[in-house]
């Protein structure tokens, strides 16, 4: 019998800080390891976000193929991919956000909501209001 594996939350439900993995186990033999294990940057993505990445990579970066596979318009496919890139810390040019953008008003942007991150990018001129509206509408 195969157990259903659930996607672990990335943030603490009590304080909102990042969770770490402290136990790993083998489904086949039951062996377990305990300790502090780093999580990957993709672990915090939702299943729909991971699906978009899988489709995008499987189509070798062709957004028209993503559009067809997801049965959505090109702007919607683009907006969804842009939203995933924002969650992964990339800017409009596909580069990692510089550390000086990581904090605004004394808050760490990693703990900010995706909506506030999108609005911050509009304020910095990294996103157009139209793209932001599409991202916020999904």
UniProtKB/TrEMBL annotation:
<feature type="domain" description="DUF2089">
    <location>
        <begin position="45"/>
        <end position="90"/>
    </location>
</feature>
<dbReference type="InterPro" id="IPR018658">
    <property type="entry name" value="DUF2089"/>
</dbReference>
<protein>
    <submittedName>
        <fullName>Uncharacterized protein</fullName>
    </submittedName>
</protein>
<dbReference type="InterPro" id="IPR053957">
    <property type="entry name" value="DUF2089_Zn_ribbon"/>
</dbReference>
<dbReference type="Pfam" id="PF22747">
    <property type="entry name" value="Zn_ribbon_DUF2089"/>
</dbReference>
<feature type="domain" description="DUF2089">
    <location>
        <begin position="12"/>
        <end position="43"/>
    </location>
</feature>
<dbReference type="Pfam" id="PF09862">
    <property type="entry name" value="DUF2089"/>
</dbReference>
